[in-house]
Fold this sequence. Notes:
By secondary structure, chain A is of the alpha/beta class. Chain A has helices at residues 45-53, 75-81, 103-106, 109-115, 122-132, 151-163, 181-196, 208-214, 232-237, 239-245, and strands at 5-16, 19-30, 34-38, 60-65, 68-69, 83-85, 169-173, 200-204, 217-222, 225-230.
Amino acid sequence: MTEEALLQVKKISKSFGGVMAVKDMSFEIARGEILGVIGPNGSGKTTLVNLITGFVKPDSGEVFFKNKKITGMQPHKIADRGVTRTFQVMRPYHSLPAFKNLIVPLNSPRIRRTRGGKLGDKDGVAIDILEEIGFERDAYVPYKIASSLPLGYLKRLELARCLALKPEVVICDEIFSGLSMSEISTMVPLIEKLQMEGMTIMMIEHRLRELFRLVNRVMVMNFGEKLAEGHPEEVMENKEVREAYLGTEAVPC
Amino acid sequence: MIAKERRKERLDRGIKIRTGGLYALTSWREMFYLLVPRVILIFGLLLSPFILEMYWQRVLCQAGIYALLALGFDFLAEYVGLVCLGGAFFVGSGAYISGLLNAKMGWAPFLTIPIATVAGAVVSTLVLLPCLRLRGIYFAIISFMFPLLTVYIIIALNIFGGTEGITALATFPNIWVDQYLILGAVIIALFVLRRLVTEDIGLILRSIKDNDQAVKASGISITSYKTKAVFIAALIGCFGGAYLSHLYGWVGISQFALDYSILPIAATVMGGMGTLVGPVIGAFILTPLSEALRGFGQMRVVVYCLILIGFIVYKPEGLMNVLQRKYHQFEHWEEV
Amino acid sequence: MNILIYGTVNSVIFALVAVGFTLVYGVSRLPNFAHGALYVLVGFLTWSLVNDFKLFYPLAILISLGISSILGALIYRLVLIRLRGMATSEIIASFAVGLIILEGLRLQGIGGFKGFIGPFYVLPSFIDSKIRITGVLLDAQRLIVILGGLAVVASIWLFTHYTKTGLSLRAIAQDEQAAMMLGIDSDRAAVISLSIGSALAGLAAVIILPLGNVTAEAGYRILINALAVCIIGGLGSWAGAVLASFVLGFSMIISTSLFGSVWESVVLVGAIILILIFRPSGLLGKQKELEERV
């Protein structure tokens, strides 16, 4: 695990009609790290993700990936470089089998480049990816119609959509939200496995207990600003952080 | 007293389930079930020239052009999410380019038609390109405006023959060529598009329609796929236009007429959006209908629009979907 | 000087025509393709009421305006309301309605209905005289256009900023869901906006049509002009529509005096394409491209 910063965000700001959603934020993520991002609702976490991945153009500031500027690039170009993200609200194909959802990323220029020419059996590759992520092939889960799958599988499907691109960075936007304890317990090893394989991950989460077990570093946001950064324990000792969370359910049920 | 409610229950017919996937090959009966509708369609189209008299054969040719436009519209609207209100632009540009090539350069139809098809599609796509990055409404507005604006420009600058158009173009040798050329084009276009939408490209286009954020996040450029889709639809429409110029031997501003924009839309809505076959059938129904109404002049457009609104409000799924449902499923009333 | 005056007249014409369309689109996201049709309809109705029924001119105007706003409301209630949310169907349906009206006005021979073709449908000017302004001879009607146009735009502005209904329309335009949570009924707002929009189309017609004659073809031209203004100014932006009207109005007058009036349509097309390439969301467009939806 090298110490070079893979993703650098420098003084990024964005306001929507007078409301400062993100204010002057700077931070770095090193290759192979898992960074957790926490903060009360409305603190600008999703906007931050949108800014990094190109869905929203920043008012000021820069984003660097592998030392190259990606600020304000189109989202598909940023994904093409290897920075992917999940969406909180997913709309998978309802009437199609689950694995068909991966056909789109498998047709992207990025995959065409890395696999060198024609991919051949994309369906097979899609099913393999799903199997690795925990869709049991024997139970024909990958073939099930997407709308019939429970939420835990759908969240993993969303993650699989990112992984199908063979990315270098995955930004997970509240991937544990809405899941039951048992579903989370199947996803946590998945994230650990990804990290062991060298993936760099940024996780936006509300479920602090599970998050703290996974991450080495945590960043706290409030009102669009970075409040604190560091090891989970130190950060939770921070007085300002506790104040920000006062009255907020830290671990939603 | 508890009122007994009835509801319609629909179940797939046994034979439909048995014909899923590879199982269709297991028996003649099942293969028949699948093939019969398609065969009826193809043979019906191909044999119709023999049973029609001269006047209606001409109508058939016109219907073919509308069918091509309806296919393009359905493809763009249902599979990509772009509502193209200006099919007339495709027809007009294809017609004018092939007409000009024939009149000024003397090239024969078998040259001008392919060239005009491609060139017209390129022009149409370029014109629509700037609005592909924007929300769907822009595409609808721009596609609506362009045929009309082109007419204004042609009249005002008196280019390309102005209001009279260009006449004395080469025509096809005989009526049989007329008909089979267009019918062949319709059938080919239909099957090519059907293949296309079941391939990965079709899936990507539908994803763009349903959830473009996810497609962008998957590293695919939406604009580039939309451009390809518009180009395909334009190819189909421009072929119709190029064919039209040699069908009657002249081109004029009437080829940018609203007819060519609206009738395909009405045919699509009536026939069933998304089915690709429905719009074709719709076109072959509406065109003779409009011919019968020819005596009423502009009333035709009113009728198309009334039919369109009627269908869109009351039976938005269109004829084809209803027919398919009846074919594949049986329904019965059930007491609840 | 000539150019300044006529440019202003032209610009105000564009603005008048576009204002109704912008209102409807801004509030209910419905592109009212029947806008041009309603414009022409009011023109013909007024003509008919004045000539065939011998009504007092202002009364005829009021009646036609009333009819057009009722028609607008009906269009929504009967057709569009069932299609809310289905974008493709909304566009197709409003397009179809507009065409029915426009082409219907061109009908002839059905049950003795003569149909409105031919150049003899002229609405009388309000005042029939010429005025001299800073050395330029100007019809009184054109002056009325400028004043009337400004009055309309100003009153719409006042309406949407100071009356309860107007404010609720603006609320829906800005954030439909928030407005609904506050109890503003989006369907009612749409009906109101569509009737006002139709009345505005009619108002534009009565102010502008006396300058020329009434034809059914004008319907398409008007619609295109309204659409062009909205695209160049930015769909849904008021200030943008006004700005765009002036940009278009002046550029067309300038090009006409320099190159002749045949290049008008070219200028229009050119302006649209330029905007789409360089500033797609319009001059003052606040609604950005797809990118902004998260």
